[in-house]
Write a structure and sequence with these properties.
The protein has 224 residues and is an alpha/beta fold. It has helices spanning 15-29, 54-62, 83-89, 96-109, 133-140, 154-167, 185-198; strands at residues 2-8, 33-36, 39-41, 44-45, 51-52, 75-77, 114-122, 126-128, 131-132, 144-149, 172-178, 202-206. Helix 1 (15-29) packs parallel to helix 2.
Length: 224
Amino acid sequence: MSGYFVTGTDTNVGKTYVTCALARLAVEAGHRVFAFKPIESGCVQGPDGSYVGSDQRLLVVASGGWQTGPLRGLYQLPLPAAPLVAAEAAGATIDLELVVRTAQEGASQGAASFALVEGAGGWRVPITPTADMGTLARRLGLPVLVVARASLGTINHTLLTLEAIRADGLAAAAVVLSQRAEDDPSAAQRNRIEIQRRWPGEIVILGRSPAALAGLLPAVPRGT
């Protein structure tokens, strides 16, 4: 099975937007997709009193809607904060082993040919007192996809995130600059060029067309 662990340079940089776009593109190409955000904070309370992870639901829909139960997301935390902080505020504890096991078993049970696991926040965001998103990525063993803003500030944030990934003994498979409607396209191109001067990997600018992500998809296995 192939896929990515999707991390960001910060919160609200477009991780879920990029992950959903990539999931839909993979489904259209013929992949069986498992798209999973195990932990979401800033969740709102639904009519039944339970908390709803809106990003988690978007990923499930983008991957075809087949995921049920814990495969739709394990933790829905109300406080909009880092997972550890939000869990402590809710009187909960995040079980990293459960997160890893659910991600691995979910992809296997769903016979997925392409898996996407989206982190919360950035690479150094804490999940437990001793583990951060980088720890989860190492445990899952998926290639790392970095999502960043296309606008001002992204050069520094992206390069620092790439350095942190490398310091953890991992390599980033690609960087996706998520270009919003209000972003200047020429500025996004300049940012891509400056990041490329310092990092030799693949950098994609995702604007309105998800086809920009097509090069990140593996071939569909025969018989899928």
